[in-house]
Automatic annotation (TrEMBL):
This is Xanthine phosphoribosyltransferase. It holds the Pfam family Pribosyltran. Residues 32-145 form the Phosphoribosyltransferase domain. Coiled coil: none annotated. NCBIfam families: PRK09177.1. Signal peptide: none annotated.
Length: 161
């Protein structure tokens, strides 16, 4: 299956995180935010700044483990969030929905918000900013670096020579 790539720049991520915060304003005040590490950390920090929220908890779910392929495991519990009542959960992306399902089971009373969602997992969110096709790989700014790309004319010339 062909994979498409969607590159998200820092500027775009910042805009999308601010849009998420704006959409979350009606939910305020909240007790705190639970960031789903690691991808949710930066969106959560941006949203927390916008929303004036200083209590940030984290949850870490490992979905691909060498010992137990495919079985998701919580390696850091969101202790401060209890059953999630009064908390916002923030992640960068919901793809298959495996992570979101585990997080929701742990924090059933929390509100789940993310920047990007794919069709397979979007029903598990309460809010997302942009839908991304299932076959599209989202390249986040922390996963990429600018690199030199040869000009078209040069690559064309090399085929003529
Ligand atoms: O819906 P899913 O198929 O579960 O995928 C979504 C999860 O995948 C990514 O995290 P990842 O597991 O890559 O870990 P990371 O954020 O620490 O890089 C992302 O930040 C979500 O938490």
């Amino acid at each position: 299956m062909a994979v498409n790539y969607a590159t998200v720049t820092w500027d775009q991520l910042h805009r999308d995180a601010r849009a998420l915060a704006e959409a979350l304003m009606p939910k305020m005040p909240v007790k705190g935010i639970v960031a789903v590490t690691r991808g949710g950390l930066i969106p959560a920090a941006i949203a927390a700044r916008e929303l004036g929220c200083r209590l940030i908890e984290t949850i870490s779910v490992v979905t691909y483990d060498e010992e137990d392929m495919g079985k998701p495991r919580i390696i850091k519990e969101p202790i401060a969030a209890g059953d999630g009542e009064g908390f916002l959960i923030i992640d960068d992306l919901v793809d298959s929905g495996v992570t979101a399902r585990v997080v929701r089971e742990k924090l059933p009373k929390a509100y789940f918000a993310c920047l990007y969602a794919k069709p397979a997992g979007k029903e598990l969110t309460d809010l997302f900013i942009t839908e991304v096709p299932q076959d599209t790989w989202v390249l986040f700014p922390w996963d990429t670096a600018p690199l030199f790309v040869p000009p078209l004319a040069r690559s064309k010339k090399s085929t003529v020579d």
